[in-house]
Amino acid sequence: MPRNPLSTGIRALSVLSAFLNEFADRTQTETVLALVMRTLEKISYRPFCSRSFHSGRLRPAQQDLYRVLGLPRTATQKDIKKAYYQMAKKYHPDTNPDDPQAKEKFAKIAEAYEVLSDEVKRKQYDTYGSADPSARGAEQQYWRYGIPTDPEELFRKIFGDFVGARGFGDFSSMFEQPPEFVMELTFTQAAKGENKEITVNLEDSCPRCKGKGHEPGTKVMHCHYCGGTGMESINTGPFTMRSTCRRCGGQGSIMIMPCVMCRGTGQTKQRQTVMVPVPAGVEDGQTIRMSVGKKKINITFRVQTSPVFRRDGSDIHSDVMISVAQAVLGGTARAQGLYNTVDIMIPPGIQTDQTIRLGGKGIAHMGRGGYGDHYVHIKVRVPRKLTRRQRELMLSFAQDETDVEGTVHGVTRPPTGTKRSSLRKRRQDSSPD
User: Fold this and answer.
1) pLDDT band at 252 (very low <50, low <70, confident <90, very high)
2) Which segments carry the region annotation Disordered (predicted)?
């Protein structure tokens, strides 16, 4: 007689299989054998294979657990948990009350996660579970994992009992997005950051019933359908699914007289003023999440354009107008900065659209400290009107230019290629002999 309890269990399983196939129907057979197989798994996590367990009526259905979760075989534990979370959210019975196949899909997802999230079980599954039975010759071996807990319990273990005593009736609330509000900001407010108020309408405890949902002075009736637990159990083959009580909606009690203000919800819309800490450097369209009491809200910022500054990440750009004399001779110019007015040095011969960099005078880097730069773009202002003296000086200046392409009004060009101004000619004609 084998001393190994696993071997003993497998032999017993073979005998039991033959007995059930002879005297029991298919549903009873699958249920009993599934329970026995899960018991054997508790004895040893080694994959159990049986050459004698080849019943023609019962052959464990194979499924690719990686495909169930939509993952490659190289998936990490982080990928496995993320995929399970997303698919459990999609196929949970409470979020799919009209889909009769949701419970079956949810159970398969839970089974796949139960195996692949355990490194030992996953290694065994990779070694034995995906092998093609026809490729193993006479030693046909079959593999099937059972899960020791129901799918609901597995989900609760992983993500926590987030609904407290109310059970999975509030499952959908876990995936509800917080209400979103829009806050308008000027360019300077977004760049510097500040605390700014916003008025929002949020659901809060009903002031009439204090969040209880029933009229003050009235009582609630204990739900006899679920025994006050808020949960009901539904048997689905080898699994027992726990779902929200259809009578009390997961509350565990039934209100005889709902509150007339909140209509039994315990919540009403209330107008509140909230102080929002606007982070320095926030950009248009960015969203932050903040707490308002026990609620979470999203604030999306809409940043207005500036008539002075242009933004490029944490850098800002602006223009400064200078005169022709400043451009030629150099000097200083005053520019409006983000935080104060700054004097910039203009080097002689500066060209229009040339930039001057003011390091660290830009917008704060969000999350990593430091500041961007301020780039000042030079724009040379050409006068539209000149005094008589200015015109004479410009003609004199133009007379000495040697790099002019084309002509200058009022300046003649002799055949020799040198320039002579009409002003000089008039002066020579008027001078005494």
Assistant:
1) confident
2) 404-433
